[in-house]
Every structure is written in structure tokens, then in C-alpha cells.
Amino acid sequence: MGNVIRCSVRFLQLHNFTELGWKNLLSYIFTLLSILFQVCATVLTLLETSTKVGLLGEKLEIYTDNGLNRIQWKKFGSSSRRPLTWYKTSFDAPEGSDPVVLNLGSMGKGQAWVNGQGIGRYWMSFHTPKARPSQTRYHIPRSFLKRTGNLLVLLEEEMGYPTGITVNTVSITKVCHYVSESHASAAQISCPQNQKISQILFASFGTPLGDCKSYTIGNCHSPNSRAIIEKACLGREDCNINLSKHIFGGDPCPGITKSLLVDARCSRH
């Protein structure tokens, strides 16, 4: 709660003053106001020097290996769940090369660090119109991780359940690209490391309907779309497709801005 300082002066209605008397009164009032403002400024300065922004844990950097032992940690129990609480644990890096994510779906609102590196702020208690969090998994770059003994520290502002946190890997088997010729001249299809494009599930150059989650061919469609994409991309880790009518054997709908939607499957070598 903020500190509020109210500085006020009450003026009294006086009568029968001579011109000299009014001048003396005004001089007296201005002197009082000057003194009053100086007092207020002094009090504000004292408050600014005694009030510090931020949390002690942030100042001590207790989310790092060096700052971890600057405070005394307590063993987690059922009574440990309360707002504005710091939690720490350790975990080993998952095997393999797949992307690593931190699943914070059991938490409320706060911030997470891995080996001193900020993973980001989370807010699970704030739901979308579909009554669910907008994001539950947070990417941990493998460059942040050691093979064993990785430090995870969280500042939970509400009353989340830290025992429900998991470290997972994500296996990407599909890639989708949707681009309009009004925004780019080419589309790039790329699989994750050590994977290649093994199948073209959908391809349409024209006016495809929908998005990467749900799509269908629109009123304008080049019948060569799939064959062109398969020839350029199958068996490769990535490929570039120019959004040109010449690539697709002609303009399927002259005068209309066209797009390319490609949905591909990736497989390991």
C-alpha cells in the first residue's frame, strides 16, 4: 500500500485590512507555503530512501548457484503453499536432442529460472475465453542445461502446486507453413534437427481456406501444388518454394492475391 502525504493550508477570511496589512499578510502566507513545501519535500525524500522496489530474493539472486545459499530454505510440505513463496528443486536433462519444456500447468502466477537463466513469467490462473491458460509449457534451451543437477527456482505469487511441475521433451513430427505472396516471395519448410520431410499431407497454391490446424482447398487452387512441393521437399531437412505462378505451371486465378499452405510430416533419418 502506498504512502500518501497530504499538505494543505487553511485560509481564514479576514476583514478591515489596510493595503499595507494585506501585503504583510500575503508575504506571511507565501513564507508559510514555502516552509510547508520544504517539509513535504523532505518527508518524500526520506520515504524514497527507506522504500525499496523489488524482492529480497531478487536482490540476493537466490535463483543462481551463487545466491542459493544466501538464505535458509525449508523442506516443502502441505503447509508451505502460500502466496509469494520461493521454491527450488533440481532435475537432470532429458536424454536425446528433442526440445525441452517446463510444464507449469499446476502453478498460479509467477516467474521461473533454470540455472540462473530466466525462462519467463507464467500466469496459469488467467484463462482464455475457452477457460484454460493461454500457455502451460515453457521452452528450456538445451544450452541452458547441464547433464545432471540443473537448478530450477520459482517465485510463485499465488498458491500453485509445485509438486505438479514436470520437465518434458517435445517431439515435432509435423511442420506447417502458410504464407501469402503479398507478404513474402517464398515459403521455407524446415524439419527439426536430424529429421527429414517424409510426407506432404496437404499443399495448395491459390486461396486455401482455414489455417495450419484445419484447412481445405479454396475456390482458387493450382492442381500441381502437391506434386511441385513433393518434388522440391521430400527427403530433405528443409526446402524453399518460390511463390510464383511459373513454379506451379501457370496462374490459377489471375488478378487475385494467392497464398501457399503446406502441411508436411517429418521423420528421423
TrEMBL record:
Listed EC numbers: 3.2.1.23
GO terms for biological process, alphabetical: carbohydrate metabolic process
Pfam family, one: BetaGal_gal-bd
Domain SUEL-type lectin span(s) in chain numbering: 181-267
Alphabetized InterPro entries for the sequence: BetaGal_gal-bd, Galactose-bd-like_sf, Glycoside_Hdrlase_35, Lectin_gal-bd_dom, Lectin_gal-bd_sf
Keyword Chloroplast belongs to the record: no
EC top class, as a word: hydrolase
Highest taxon above the source species: Eukaryota
Transmembrane segment boundaries: 25-47
Gene3D superfamilies: 2.60.120.740, Galactose-binding domain-like
Localization per Swiss-Prot or TrEMBL: Secreted, Extracellular space, Apoplast
Any GO MF annotation of the entry: carbohydrate binding
A single GO cellular-component term on record: apoplast
UniProt KW keywords: Apoplast, Glycoprotein, Glycosidase, Hydrolase, Membrane, Secreted, Signal, Transmembrane, Transmembrane helix
Keyword Transport among record annotations: no
SUPFAM superfamilies xref list: Galactose-binding domain-like
Catalysed conversion reaction: Hydrolysis of terminal non-reducing beta-D-galactose residues in beta-D-galactosides
Main location, first listed in the record: secreted
Family the entry assigns: Belongs to the glycosyl hydrolase 35 family.
Protein name stated in the entry: beta-galactosidase
Organism: Linum tenue
